[in-house]
Amino acid sequence: MTYEQFMDKATSPWMLKNGPDHDIVLSSRIRLARNLADKRFPTVAPSEELEEIMEFFQREYEHTPYHDNETFHFVPMSQLSSIEKRVLIEKHLISPLLTKNKETAASLISTNEQVSIMINEEDHLRIQLYDPGFQLEKSLKKTFEIDDWIEEKVNYAFDESRGYLTSCPTNVGTGMRASVMMHLPALVLTKQINRMIPAINHLGLVVRGIYGEGSEALGNLFQISNQITLGKSEENIIRDLEGVAQQLIEHERLQRGRLLENLGTRLEDRIFRSLGLLTYSRIMNTKEVAGRLSNVRLGVDLGLIKNVPRNVLTELTVLTQPGFLQYHAQKTLTPTERDILRASIIREKLHEVE
């Protein structure tokens, strides 16, 4: 398998499975920040030292099988084009920051794309694992197993009183970021999300858009994650995040029922109008597509639309991003060219399921 195969399909294999509460929680993610005890951190280390670290992880873990016969594949940033990097970012397999250290940065990505280990980003290692639906405890357990597997060959920078040491002080302690990606159209339509976000932030959690810090919540997709890593155990962090996420799930389901009851035909019109526009439009920009796909996903979850699989909507969410469109076209496109190609791909996918 070559790294190009990670870009051939918009949906990772794990995305095709339905997890708990999958109508609202699209995914659960655990990310661990780790540094090597005997090496300078990437923010101050010379390139020669970072290159040695990258080569070590390639030598020790490339093509190495892990649980369920999954194998890790080494993807160096120096061999990727700008469009290929963007595709991997859009699939959440790497971070934008990793691509800035292109000569000394890489990622180890599992065959099923569920696990990626970024090398020489802000820290020596950023280990991240995704699961479908709402299953943070299961995700944490599997991530700990991978963390232990790696630690068999390296020593982590760790302090008995402070915990894991990281380049950024906000990650010191557990070094863990746990998050859930949630689809909350009813809370947005009823404007309840506006009062909930400050309350969530007050609890030590943060609400971001689909691509994390600084990104917009396109398509009513919100990433809820912990802010505090020091002074709490990983289990307590997960418990707090689960509690808030469970309340959001309950409020979202309640508001979906009320919208259906109170708006009736007007809600159906909003949903089916979006489906019609997606099916027949010739030009569509990223923001409009995100909103229309959100409406259609809501229609599927409410049982109003029965012939459009959720997997198709998930695929279109990624496939219509700028990087994927240009990778598909095998060239750089102007914004107008992207809008035309985006509409064409959506029409083709939706006609396939008619």
From TrEMBL:
<keyword id="KW-0418">Kinase</keyword>
<keyword id="KW-0067">ATP-binding</keyword>
<feature type="binding site">
    <location>
        <begin position="208"/>
        <end position="213"/>
    </location>
    <ligand>
        <name>ATP</name>
    </ligand>
</feature>
<dbReference type="InterPro" id="IPR000749">
    <property type="entry name" value="ATP-guanido_PTrfase"/>
</dbReference>
<dbReference type="Pfam" id="PF00217">
    <property type="entry name" value="ATP-gua_Ptrans"/>
</dbReference>
<feature type="binding site">
    <location>
        <begin position="177"/>
        <end position="181"/>
    </location>
    <ligand>
        <name>ATP</name>
    </ligand>
</feature>
<feature type="binding site">
    <location>
        <position position="126"/>
    </location>
    <ligand>
        <name>ATP</name>
    </ligand>
</feature>
<keyword id="KW-0021">Allosteric enzyme</keyword>
<dbReference type="GO" id="GO:1990424">
    <property type="term" value="F:protein arginine kinase activity"/>
</dbReference>
<dbReference type="GO" id="GO:0005524">
    <property type="term" value="F:ATP binding"/>
</dbReference>
<keyword id="KW-0547">Nucleotide-binding</keyword>
<dbReference type="GO" id="GO:0046314">
    <property type="term" value="P:phosphocreatine biosynthetic process"/>
</dbReference>
<feature type="binding site">
    <location>
        <position position="92"/>
    </location>
    <ligand>
        <name>ATP</name>
    </ligand>
</feature>
<dbReference type="InterPro" id="IPR023660">
    <property type="entry name" value="Arg_Kinase"/>
</dbReference>
<dbReference type="GO" id="GO:0005615">
    <property type="term" value="C:extracellular space"/>
</dbReference>
<dbReference type="InterPro" id="IPR022414">
    <property type="entry name" value="ATP-guanido_PTrfase_cat"/>
</dbReference>
<comment type="similarity">
    <text>Belongs to the ATP:guanido phosphotransferase family.</text>
</comment>
<dbReference type="InterPro" id="IPR022415">
    <property type="entry name" value="ATP-guanido_PTrfase_AS"/>
</dbReference>
<comment type="function">
    <text>Catalyzes the specific phosphorylation of arginine residues in a large number of proteins. Is part of the bacterial stress response system. Protein arginine phosphorylation has a physiologically important role and is involved in the regulation of many critical cellular processes, such as protein homeostasis, motility, competence, and stringent and stress responses, by regulating gene expression and protein activity.</text>
</comment>
<dbReference type="InterPro" id="IPR014746">
    <property type="entry name" value="Gln_synth/guanido_kin_cat_dom"/>
</dbReference>
<feature type="short sequence motif" description="RDXXRA motif of the pArg binding pocket involved in allosteric regulation">
    <location>
        <begin position="338"/>
        <end position="343"/>
    </location>
</feature>
<keyword id="KW-0808">Transferase</keyword>
<feature type="binding site">
    <location>
        <begin position="27"/>
        <end position="31"/>
    </location>
    <ligand>
        <name>ATP</name>
    </ligand>
</feature>
<protein>
    <recommendedName>
        <fullName>Protein-arginine kinase</fullName>
        <ecNumber>2.7.14.1</ecNumber>
    </recommendedName>
</protein>
<feature type="domain" description="Phosphagen kinase C-terminal">
    <location>
        <begin position="24"/>
        <end position="255"/>
    </location>
</feature>
<dbReference type="GO" id="GO:0004111">
    <property type="term" value="F:creatine kinase activity"/>
</dbReference>
